Amino acid sequence: MEKKVTKKFYLLSLISVVAILIMTGGHPQNTLALLGVLIVLIFNHTTLLNMVSNLTKTMTLTGDDAKQAMRKVLFFLVLKMTLLVSVMVMIYFYDKSLTPKALLLMIFQLIIQVVSIKNNY
What we know:
The structure is a single chain. The protein is mainly alpha-helical. Helix content is 86%, strand content 0%. The protein is built from 4 helices and no strands. Helix 1 runs antiparallel to helix 2 and helix 1 packs antiparallel against helix 4. The mean pLDDT is 86.
Protein backbone atom coordinates (compact mmCIF):
# COMPACT_ATOMS: atom_id res chain seq x y z
CA MET A 1 0.00 0.00 0.00
CA GLU A 2 1.65 3.20 -1.20
CA LYS A 3 1.01 6.18 1.02
CA LYS A 4 0.57 9.49 -0.74
CA VAL A 5 -0.65 12.98 -0.12
CA THR A 6 -4.28 13.13 -1.18
CA LYS A 7 -6.47 15.87 -2.57
CA LYS A 8 -8.38 15.81 0.70
CA PHE A 9 -5.24 16.86 2.57
CA TYR A 10 -4.71 19.77 0.19
CA LEU A 11 -8.34 20.85 0.48
CA LEU A 12 -8.22 20.69 4.26
CA SER A 13 -4.97 22.65 4.19
CA LEU A 14 -6.77 25.45 2.38
CA ILE A 15 -8.69 26.00 5.60
CA SER A 16 -5.36 26.98 7.11
CA VAL A 17 -5.13 29.86 4.64
CA VAL A 18 -8.31 31.28 6.12
CA ALA A 19 -6.87 30.81 9.62
CA ILE A 20 -3.68 32.61 8.52
CA LEU A 21 -5.68 35.56 7.20
CA ILE A 22 -7.59 35.77 10.48
CA MET A 23 -4.43 35.48 12.62
CA THR A 24 -2.50 38.13 10.71
CA GLY A 25 -5.37 40.54 10.32
CA GLY A 26 -4.56 40.93 6.65
CA HIS A 27 -1.02 42.26 7.23
CA PRO A 28 0.64 41.33 3.90
CA GLN A 29 4.17 40.51 5.12
CA ASN A 30 3.00 38.47 8.08
CA THR A 31 0.50 36.68 5.86
CA LEU A 32 3.28 35.75 3.42
CA ALA A 33 5.49 34.59 6.28
CA LEU A 34 2.79 32.28 7.65
CA LEU A 35 1.93 31.07 4.14
CA GLY A 36 5.60 30.10 3.85
CA VAL A 37 5.24 28.17 7.10
CA LEU A 38 2.17 26.44 5.68
CA ILE A 39 4.04 25.42 2.53
CA VAL A 40 6.87 23.99 4.65
CA LEU A 41 4.33 22.10 6.77
CA ILE A 42 2.73 20.60 3.66
CA PHE A 43 6.19 19.53 2.45
CA ASN A 44 6.81 18.18 5.95
CA HIS A 45 3.72 15.97 5.61
CA THR A 46 5.01 14.63 2.31
CA THR A 47 8.32 13.86 4.01
CA LEU A 48 6.47 12.03 6.78
CA LEU A 49 4.66 9.82 4.29
CA ASN A 50 7.92 9.05 2.46
CA MET A 51 9.54 8.18 5.76
CA VAL A 52 6.70 5.82 6.75
CA SER A 53 6.69 4.23 3.31
CA ASN A 54 10.42 3.48 3.53
CA LEU A 55 10.03 2.28 7.11
CA THR A 56 7.49 -0.30 6.00
CA LYS A 57 9.88 -1.38 3.25
CA THR A 58 12.60 -2.04 5.83
CA MET A 59 10.25 -4.48 7.55
CA THR A 60 9.69 -6.52 4.40
CA LEU A 61 13.10 -6.33 2.73
CA THR A 62 16.29 -8.09 3.76
CA GLY A 63 20.00 -7.50 3.36
CA ASP A 64 21.30 -4.50 1.45
CA ASP A 65 17.83 -3.46 0.28
CA ALA A 66 16.69 -3.14 3.90
CA LYS A 67 19.80 -1.13 4.79
CA GLN A 68 19.22 1.23 1.86
CA ALA A 69 15.58 1.71 2.87
CA MET A 70 16.67 2.40 6.46
CA ARG A 71 19.12 5.05 5.23
CA LYS A 72 16.22 6.70 3.41
CA VAL A 73 14.16 6.59 6.60
CA LEU A 74 16.96 8.31 8.50
CA PHE A 75 17.36 10.88 5.72
CA PHE A 76 13.65 11.71 5.78
CA LEU A 77 13.69 11.88 9.58
CA VAL A 78 16.58 14.35 9.57
CA LEU A 79 14.92 16.35 6.76
CA LYS A 80 11.63 16.46 8.67
CA MET A 81 13.23 17.71 11.87
CA THR A 82 15.39 20.20 9.97
CA LEU A 83 12.33 21.61 8.24
CA LEU A 84 10.44 22.08 11.49
CA VAL A 85 13.33 23.64 13.38
CA SER A 86 14.39 25.92 10.53
CA VAL A 87 10.89 27.27 9.92
CA MET A 88 10.47 28.07 13.61
CA VAL A 89 13.89 29.76 13.79
CA MET A 90 13.12 31.83 10.70
CA ILE A 91 9.74 32.93 12.06
CA TYR A 92 11.32 33.76 15.42
CA PHE A 93 13.96 35.96 13.84
CA TYR A 94 11.51 37.52 11.40
CA ASP A 95 8.97 38.56 14.04
CA LYS A 96 8.84 37.10 17.54
CA SER A 97 5.15 37.87 17.83
CA LEU A 98 4.43 35.43 14.98
CA THR A 99 5.98 32.46 16.81
CA PRO A 100 2.82 31.50 18.77
CA LYS A 101 0.77 31.90 15.59
CA ALA A 102 3.15 29.61 13.73
CA LEU A 103 2.89 27.05 16.54
CA LEU A 104 -0.90 27.29 16.38
CA LEU A 105 -0.69 26.75 12.62
CA MET A 106 1.49 23.67 13.20
CA ILE A 107 -1.06 22.24 15.63
CA PHE A 108 -3.85 22.93 13.16
CA GLN A 109 -1.92 21.22 10.35
CA LEU A 110 -1.20 18.26 12.64
CA ILE A 111 -4.94 17.83 13.18
CA ILE A 112 -5.46 18.00 9.42
CA GLN A 113 -2.75 15.36 8.93
CA VAL A 114 -4.39 13.02 11.42
CA VAL A 115 -7.80 13.44 9.79
CA SER A 116 -6.31 12.95 6.32
CA ILE A 117 -4.35 9.83 7.26
CA LYS A 118 -7.12 8.34 9.42
CA ASN A 119 -9.69 8.56 6.64
CA ASN A 120 -7.39 7.22 3.91
CA TYR A 121 -5.41 4.39 5.51
